[in-house]
Amino acid sequence: MVKRFENTDYWALILGGNSGLGLASAKKLAAEGMNICIIHRNSRAEMEKINQDFSALKQEKIQFLSFNKDILNPQNQHEILAELKKTLGSGGKIRCLLHSIAKGNLKPMTGSLNESLSCDDFAITLNAMATSLYDWTKIIFDENLFAEDARVLAFTSEGSTKPLQNYGAVSAAKAALEAISRNIAVEFAPFGLRSNCIQAGVTDTRSLQMIPGSEKIVEHTKKRNPFKRLTTPEDVANVVALLCTDEAAWINGCVIPVDGGEHLC
Description:
Blueprint: E1 10-15, H1 20-31, E2 35-40, H2 47-58, E3 64-68, H3 74-88, E4 93-99, H4 119-142, E5 146-156, H5 168-187, E6 193-200, H6 206-209, H7 214-224, H8 233-243, E7 255-258
Parallel strand pairs: 1-2, 1-4, 2-3, 4-5, 5-6, 6-7
Helix pairs in contact: 1-2, 1-8, 4-5
């Protein structure tokens, strides 16, 4: 098998790559020869399974780093970048910044004060799932760690434009994420960055399972999708890898559906 990124000294920095779409993308990019750095936040109890997945990545004979730290903490951000900079050395560059952070409040807008969405819930969700994309893009850019032709990718959903019960804060964050991505696409283009959002179809991940009534969403999607199945993390990971290729350099500022045509129905 030809590994498209072998011997390039390219890195993918994945925010939230411990499971779901982020982990699947890490596996695909590693299999293509790209070095991987994953930043995640997990408890000790969760680490046994995560370490098994990370060990599998290392089997691809790539360089691998992981940090179990709060991605949103400014002090952690600079410490991580300093460590990554040492590992990259003089030749390594970040080809792909992949935003896969799923940290949002899933509450209804109505109900008691303690049970319904608050402004703080919105602020926390927007910071984690939207503005953090800009934070990380900017600090990587300021440290001159991006490759000359780099890709900034983020996962969005249909919820950015369609309402869903209990999804108000995440919906607002996804809409903001797309807006931020578009501006990165324009303002950082002179410096070689391409920025796009991937709108994955309904995928059976832990994030989906946390949404109240997710079973009904899965059932409806299987009927709605033209291929009568859910999107898989591997479907999405394949597109992440494609967008990192040289041939995808002219794709910029887009929201790309990766759902088998689900959004059409």
